[in-house]
UniProtKB/TrEMBL annotation:
Organism per entry: Luteimonas cucumeris
Pfam hit, one: SIS
Name by which UniProt lists this protein: Glutamine--fructose-6-phosphate aminotransferase [isomerizing]
Function: Catalyzes the first step in hexosamine metabolism, converting fructose-6P into glucosamine-6P using glutamine as a nitrogen source.
Positions of the catalytic residues: 2, 605
SIS domain residues: 286-426, 459-600
GO biological process: amino sugar biosynthetic process; carbohydrate metabolic process; fructose 6-phosphate metabolic process; protein N-linked glycosylation; UDP-N-acetylglucosamine metabolic process
NCBIfam families in UniProt: glmS, PRK00331.1
Keyword annotations: Aminotransferase, Cytoplasm, Glutamine amidotransferase, Repeat, Transferase
UniProt keyword Repeat, yes or no: yes
Amino acid sequence: MCGIVGAIADRDVVPVLIEGLKRLEYRGYDSAGIAIVAEEAVRRVRRTGRVAEMEAAAGAEDFHASLGIGHTRWATHGGVTEGNAHPHISHGELALVHNGIIENHEQQRERLLALGYTFESQTDTEVIAHLIHHYQSQGHDLLVALQHAVKELDGAYAIAVISKRDPQRMVCARMGCPLLVGLGEGENFVASDVSAIVSATRRVIFLEEGDTAELTREQVRVFDASGAEIPRDVHVSDVSLASLELGPYRHFMQKEIHEQPRAIADTIEAIIDRNSFVSAMFGENAEDIFRDIEAVQILACGTSYYAGLTARYWIEAIAGLPCAVDIASEYRYRQVVANPKQLIVTISQSGETLDTMEALKYAKSLGQQRTLSICNVPESAIPRASELVFYTRAGAEIGVASTKAFTTQLVALFVLTCTLAKLHGRLDAEQEAEMLEALRHLPGSVQHALNLEPQIVAWSERFAPKQHALFLGRGVHYPIALEGALKLKEISYIHAEAYPAGELKHGPLALVDAAMPVVVIAPNDKLLEKVKSNIQEVRARGGEMFVFTDQDSHFSESEGVHVIRTPRHVGVLSPIVHAIPVQLLAYHAALARGTDVDKPRNLAKSVTVE
Ligand code: HGA
């Protein structure tokens, strides 16, 4: 969603801001802007649409400065207009960018109107700019004015502020939305995501909840929620520039689909090296916690939720523990019966998904203190709020539609399953060796699935003109059908629904006719014969079938039944391998329809608002 970048330096920071905003584009946005302090004036340029348009406008207006802030906006309050785009300016003196939502903006607006402030936008954000200006006008310096202002805000924010009254510094604050400070040589930066500043510096301080910070060229000072100066750890980010660039690919989604063998190999590296499922990989106290728990509760949204649904089949079958999976935005408002013996597992690629974070806080407030986060972004908010963590090593995922994050989450959940099974006496040495062997072969099997791409391209041409599609699966492959339907919806805008194949005749069969393609995930598992019967039900109604299966299933093509086979059945890890063809199908169908694959309409990468 929204992105922030800011810089104070001895050089022109405008190119730094523009490059940073371009690197934040993947998060999804509808407008962009920058503000600078130059020659004792605040200047700003904003545009709806792409950063490139705003860049052209900044170029035309000859923007150069050594202090500035930039923003990509994903509107929550107020329409997508230039007037609502950030930065917002108060009294021509102070410019501010904001990620998040100010819940008490209406009360603050009333109060500021009474103080004589006028509003130019419909955003919740503008109140923050005026509030800081109000405290500055009472004689406080910029930092103190910010610290006073944030005390009066309810809601979530990451904020960066510059002021012509104080041209030698930039201040920022964080509550509920990520913000970090980048440390350079004689220059410093602020960003909502390390990718925005990675070509300038890799040394970063992750601000904590309630922190404010002051940046000059030479120094960064961080203050906690009480206003006391506090040392925060400096981290060296290992985000690689290559992972942020397209290279030979046409889209990030395509690149990320093809990176999956590597991403999976990196995620399992430590396990393969140790040749054992070791609980220490989840954190120091993991063994005690894992031994003690009696059940698992998974909380996630979107694709991560489908990873959780897949894991339920594994956790119950292999580890023998009851497992519930909830959509985070539902769980957080449900009257949950707490079970302190439950392990709460949150799954979030970014580690900042607001609903998942709130569901975690809710679970903890109910006394459920055993928490594990599965996440792809180190030091992000959800892992930091969790007792245990397993980091997937997918590398930066830029495409809005998740691919490599999904398959590496599945790998992480499989490792969790085997670790729990071992500690609960359900996995003997021989079985452990089998599971490790299956994991070892997984990157190769995923590569084989990727090699099916030419056949899938041929299918996608038949798909592209369709308005609707059905996806079917059974057992552990049902969540892969759900994920396939979601991928297709997200990037091709073809309406797609997924059902457990056994549910077909309880309703959705009514939809089937020659215009409704039906995709079936049907590997050679114990439900194969059942799925074959379900396929006959569809064929009998004239539906065209597209079946993903494996060599061992002996499925044959026939009139209206198209079959693509992965090279062999990979047993328990089969859902991970079958995620690949449904990703490729969605990608190529979208390509054929000419949609914006990496930035699908209305969607954002990290969903940091409710
Ligand atoms: N509420 C602000 C910022 C929105 C945001 O953070 N989106 O991710 C606005 O609507 O401008």
